[in-house]
Amino acid sequence: MNEELISVKEFAEANGLLRQTVFKVLKRHGIEQSKLRGGGENRGQTISYITKQDSIFVLELLASSKKDCGEFELLDTSLYDVGVFYLLLLEPEHDPNRFKVGFTKSMNDRLRQHRCSAPYTTIVKTWLCRRLWEKTAIECITQGCEQLHTEVFRTPSIEIVVELCDEFFALMPQLLVNDQMNNDKEENL
Asked: How many domains does the chain have?
């Protein structure tokens, strides 16, 4: 099986959508499905598959939909906001391996908030990110770190954490800088 494909059924279940909704969006936007005969528990049934890229496109279409329809109630459109995933050092001089990670649509506002309780907070690095990716990114990059609070950790090496972040975001779909700029403009209106 091609690893780039995901079954429509699995995609719908994973995202809290009805299969019928997904099929309607696919048809409406002319997205081709691959149909393959299933084995095992599917006993020769034809299963529809879409590419991971098409699955992201479907989520973006649903997220941008303004319809107030029951089948879209389970979809939280804020999960698809574009912002940045940040890596901060809270006390770089006294505890250089204690860090905070998270998602924000406005790094300036977030930094201002953190400096109220940790005045020496510094930004190590940021990556373009969707809010939806935040928890997965945190789980991936904090393996082997000591969790001190919800999004605060201690690591033996901050450089390793930066490398893990770079690797994680290199695997994710590329976002346009314009997406973040549009969010910043909307925020300032």
From this structure: 2
CA nearest neighbour of 101 among 134, 70, 73, 129 = 134
Question: What pLDDT score does 139 carry?
Answer: 96
Domain with 22 in it = 5-77
pLDDT tens-digit map of 141-173: 999 999 999 899 999 999 999 999 999 999 999
Taking all residues of the chain, what is their mean pLDDT, rounded to a whole number?
A: 82
Residues with Cβ within 8 Å of residue 51, at least 6 apart in sequence = 4, 5, 6
Judge if 9 and 91 occupy the same domain: no
What does the CA dihedral 8, 12, 14, 17 come to, rounded to 10 degrees? 170
Cα–Cα nearest to 82, from 66, 59, 50: 59
pLDDT for 12: 83
> Rounded distance, CA 94 to CA 116, Å?
17
